[in-house]
Amino acid sequence: MPKITREEVRVPADVMPEARDEYITNYLKATRETGRLMLFACDQKIEHLNKDFYGEGIDIADLDPEHLFKIGSEGVCGVLAGQRGLVAQYAADYPEINYLIKMNSKTNLVGTKQEDPYSPQLYDLDAVLAMKEAGVNIVGLGYTIYLGSEYEATMMAEAGELIAQAHANGLIVVLWIYPRGKAVTAEKDPDLIAGAAGVALCLGADFVKVNPPKPEDGRTPAEALKVASTAAGRCGLVCAGGSTVDAETFLTQLYDQIHVGGADGNATGRNIHQRSLDEAVRLTKAISAITLADWAVADALAVFAGEKDFTLADI
Amino acid sequence: MPKITREEVRVPADVMPEARDEYITNYLKATRETGRLMLFACDQKIEHLNKDFYGEGIDIADLDPEHLFKIGSEGVCGVLAGQRGLVAQYAADYPEINYLIKMNSKTNLVGTKQEDPYSPQLYDLDAVLAMKEAGVNIVGLGYTIYLGSEYEATMMAEAGELIAQAHANGLIVVLWIYPRGKAVTAEKDPDLIAGAAGVALCLGADFVKVNPPKPEDGRTPAEALKVASTAAGRCGLVCAGGSTVDAETFLTQLYDQIHVGGADGNATGRNIHQRSLDEAVRLTKAISAITLADWAVADALAVFAGEKDFTLADI
Amino acid sequence: MPKITREEVRVPADVMPEARDEYITNYLKATRETGRLMLFACDQKIEHLNKDFYGEGIDIADLDPEHLFKIGSEGVCGVLAGQRGLVAQYAADYPEINYLIKMNSKTNLVGTKQEDPYSPQLYDLDAVLAMKEAGVNIVGLGYTIYLGSEYEATMMAEAGELIAQAHANGLIVVLWIYPRGKAVTAEKDPDLIAGAAGVALCLGADFVKVNPPKPEDGRTPAEALKVASTAAGRCGLVCAGGSTVDAETFLTQLYDQIHVGGADGNATGRNIHQRSLDEAVRLTKAISAITLADWAVADALAVFAGEKDFTLADI
Amino acid sequence: MPKITREEVRVPADVMPEARDEYITNYLKATRETGRLMLFACDQKIEHLNKDFYGEGIDIADLDPEHLFKIGSEGVCGVLAGQRGLVAQYAADYPEINYLIKMNSKTNLVGTKQEDPYSPQLYDLDAVLAMKEAGVNIVGLGYTIYLGSEYEATMMAEAGELIAQAHANGLIVVLWIYPRGKAVTAEKDPDLIAGAAGVALCLGADFVKVNPPKPEDGRTPAEALKVASTAAGRCGLVCAGGSTVDAETFLTQLYDQIHVGGADGNATGRNIHQRSLDEAVRLTKAISAITLADWAVADALAVFAGEKDFTLADI
Amino acid sequence: MPKITREEVRVPADVMPEARDEYITNYLKATRETGRLMLFACDQKIEHLNKDFYGEGIDIADLDPEHLFKIGSEGVCGVLAGQRGLVAQYAADYPEINYLIKMNSKTNLVGTKQEDPYSPQLYDLDAVLAMKEAGVNIVGLGYTIYLGSEYEATMMAEAGELIAQAHANGLIVVLWIYPRGKAVTAEKDPDLIAGAAGVALCLGADFVKVNPPKPEDGRTPAEALKVASTAAGRCGLVCAGGSTVDAETFLTQLYDQIHVGGADGNATGRNIHQRSLDEAVRLTKAISAITLADWAVADALAVFAGEKDFTLADI
């Protein structure tokens, strides 16, 4: 898979001229110079509280938050996505990781039946830019929109303004868009997922993270995904990894998402960090082998099995 | 149809002296020096999600968002109206298009029965001005108000302030005004449409986009429209194109809106972009022939049929 | 009726020293050097939509918004009150009119039964000051408060801050105060009207526009009004003109409001602009003859009948 | 009663060094160099509309708002508390009065049954500081909190920030704290009143105005008040005067509030201004004789009866 | 227990370089150079009104707010946590205390059944920084989040931004996190407490104050706490002291929280200040002996009994 050069990076028109170099650098860092994104999602300590990190079937290592940073450091990822405070507490010891600051988050305590979801922006962009200025290797921002929520307006407006400011400062932006709320009856309806992808484009995001569509008309998920990735236009589309499944199933899905569905990468969290450090590191490498180097599923499985290695040099 | 000169452009008193030249330039660009507006509406990816771009009866080309820009570039339009992010991702490759940035948008997931409509402003004007400064050919702004919604107050206030700021910076403003909400029983009532036109004037808009009125008293829609266009005073009135109908019906309606109803142009989206590139381009030309050059319907139909050409030089 | 001099103008203590001259000038302009206010209300295109401007019993001339400015220009008024955008579109052609910018407005679509009334501030004062700076003859601001609405708090706070800023910049302020909302059972109760007048004073307004009280204890409306005008203290009180009635009734009421009720002028809209230009102009002169020159009703009626003229020179 | 010196004034730590002299001056002015506060409450024109100023049992003089300023000028008070606009309209003619600007107010139209009470801040502190800078003798601010209202949060936050800013600028602050709302079953419960006093301290107020507690356990109101005044710590506690009662009852209560209940003064409105000017002036003197000079009730009654005089020189 | 040096303090990456020294100083002050926190909670005058300070079983000394400062001054604590205004009124007389300003608070009048809890930020950080600049010994901030409340979003956002600003200025931050609201059925569920600890970390807090978990699966509270303290990662965890219990029970629990549960200190209020000054002082010393010097329970009890002394020199 050929690397892309600085000249080949397509820079949106809202990246100010003086931030153009910074944007290109961040885009190339985040995509490991491939244009594809391997996002290691580490924002669940707020989103799912401690349930994703402790309990049956979860390696005990996952209880200590530093586990996430060890994986990010020893594995092969594009970016590690986490809240500003989490990154602030560990970044000094893991300076080489590419950080993507998740700008909003909510817990899962108040359910959709009680209240439509709203995930608040937790800090100004200025606080993030200051951290970057002080030396933290921040390459971009993340923000979640619950499309169809009664609070959709607030989240769309926060995201819309955030992207404008981020681009003006040379940061890339990934939108998480999940249809959810009383008005949404089928969160993974293919039309809805494709619509979500289009919303991300119109707001100016560089990448959009969506749930894989569940078609009920005979199409495979990957075929339905192709519609969404086309609708996303110049906004790269990546799929959420979802809950932990076996590696072969997971890697095959990922391969199909990219090669059939037109996805531009992946965004995986629990499936990685709920494992022991060694196993988690190998999984990041297997994922990156597919996402960043177009390896076959069999080769990626060999990486996961420890039979082969995969490093940044293999991209 | 005689072109208007820079001196003939009527400049509102809230255009600051230092922005006067810029306003005149933008007004002449948007109206192709005619005072009439041919607006190609491309904001449906948020408003209607993917339903307007993919499915039965829609050309497959419409799934790729770049389709919109190809039409804007190869056809004849006054402005292409889209969200800031959408424009940011493609403008560098289509620099000659006149862009009108749609400042607010909402999806159609939460219906009026659940909640009265509110469409949030998605980014500050500063972000748009910065893009313009960085070289994007932005000539104006758009904003939607749902009159009669319980959130009317918020949208009227956002629009009122936006117009003041836009004019101060030399941009023109088009308001989309649709009566909608629990309090509105007949969205296309002629009195209500005329009222909407007056609201746009009082807020200081340059153009107002309304739905064509549906009179139930024997008047034709165009006759009823004449009341609204008069009530709009110095604010130009254009009608929304609505869903896709056959070209002859569509072009005849448009001709009547202008020549009987006193409309100052048109605003059309789906009816154009759901067609193949070639057909869509021909339709923009047919529309512009009527709107910008006072051609007869038969001549415009010949343009649509490809029997005649229509270019900017014909205005 | 003797004119008041610059020295006789009572300047509130929140007019900053550097704005003192400007305030005196604006106060004298607005009151035609009499201390009384003849306000021509032209904010109904938002408040009542098109119903006040088109239909049975309304002269067809009223459909074109320019009608308002022609009346303001050819008639005799203190100020023409309208929204910022409306004034911006016509002021260049009618530069001699004294403009009072109505800072908030709402439509009548959402009724009180559905939701208590809230009328949002539609633009910052800065936008108005910029227009003034650019040459528009703006002498003051207007703002409506619905007392007793569940949104009373927001409107009182917007008005309170607006008056402070307006005075600091030398503009006069007129408050429209109408008791309205689920909690208000009798909108024209004399005690309530008197209370409204007191609220205006406490917020620092220069004039308050109220509906004429409807006493049910045998007092005449004008007698009841006297209580309100006294309660208003140094805030001048003017009565809303209400819907169109015959000129004699109207002018007699006005005379009594001033000479019995202690009113400091009048605020009339529909009753003027729903007439033909000539009749409307004559009515403004008849009103001003009473308000600004203490003429008798019979003389004012002669003015309205075209038997006598009344000009600024008669004040 | 010995006067306190500038050195004896206890200055809170949030009074910035450069504002220290100003704070001491204002504290001494407001307390007439006694540390005790005689507050003449004149904010009822918004709070109670015109009912407190006109009607049976109220002297007709009270209808004219200037009555309040005449009393403030001819009587003996610590401060006259009123809204910014009210003070702005009269202060130039009554420059010697110590003004305390009431920063928030609401009408009584929307009752607690319909909606929990919220009283909005009506203007920024900047507007008040500008008036002071322009020469108005403003010594402090007032703000009302309805404790236990569903809007408690907003009022506490406005008050908390206001006190910080006021102290930073050398102004003193008086909080009116009334428990009220659906959650409050006994507004004058002694524990609740004591709690309110503690809240004022924690927000940093200089004085708190509470309603006198109504104990139901055999204690006298003054004994119960002692608990509240102790709980208030370094925040001085004053009691609201309530509705008009006969002077002997009123003055005896006041004496007990101070000498048994530990109150640091009083805050009286209706009981003063509903009387004729002469009687009202005498009542302010009688109150001040007790509050500011520790005179006996009998002596104060003699002052009220006109048999003795009390002036600032008697403090 | 060895003291930690300036070099050993782990400074989060959002502490700006120019504030690094200040942060280290504040961290060492607050933890008495141990890395452990003994927090004397004095924010209940708003949270619980006067009920915690007066009544049966409470020493009468506690009614006077100065009691809190006497304890803070004569006892051994890490920080005294109270609202800005409370600290402002007494800090000049107790300059040696380390103050932690509680930035938000609510009363307990509106119960969770009526409305989910929201505790508003009561003043800007600027006001606190100004006090610090003026000489008050402020080392950090506190903020309460009610996780699972319908207002969780607002509190999380206020806290997230506050921590960023506080760290940028060199202050430490303690979050109080209590799950509460209609959606929360078991406020002390161990999983929920562990989740709360993780939220604090992700927001970037230095310490989190939680209620001790109540496990129902046979584990001891301290064992369950170990999960939470691990989940907190680099954010120190301290337990709330709760209502007054006998000293032996209290101190034994504290010992176990630290030595079994992995707690990094304690946060105690009522249990201390509801006692006489002498007893309260001895209790702070007994607590600090365990928290800051790893003394055995028996030795700490001897300190409480007055048989041994414990001073800062013993750390």
Automatic annotation (TrEMBL), chains A, B, C, D, E:
Q: Which UniProt keywords apply?
A: Lyase, Schiff base
Q: Which SUPFAM superfamilies match?
A: Aldolase
**Its EC number(s):** 4.1.2.13
Molecular-function GO term, any one: fructose-bisphosphate aldolase activity
InterPro entries from the entry?
Answer: Aldolase_TIM (IPR013785), DeoC/FbaB/LacD_aldolase (IPR002915), DeoC/FbaB_aldolase (IPR050456), FbaB-like (IPR041720)
- Catalytic residues at 178, 209
**UniProt enzyme class:** lyase
Name the domain of life. Bacteria
Instruction: Please give one Pfam family short name.
Output: DeoC
Spell out the PANTHER family in the cross-references.
FRUCTOSE-BISPHOSPHATE ALDOLASE CLASS 1 (PTHR47916:SF4)
What family does this belong to?
A: Belongs to the DeoC/FbaB aldolase family. FbaB subfamily.
- Under which name does UniProt file this protein? fructose-bisphosphate aldolase
Species source reads: Adlercreutzia equolifaciens subsp. celatus DSM 18785
Taxonomic lineage from the root: Bacteria, Bacillati, Actinomycetota, Coriobacteriia, Eggerthellales
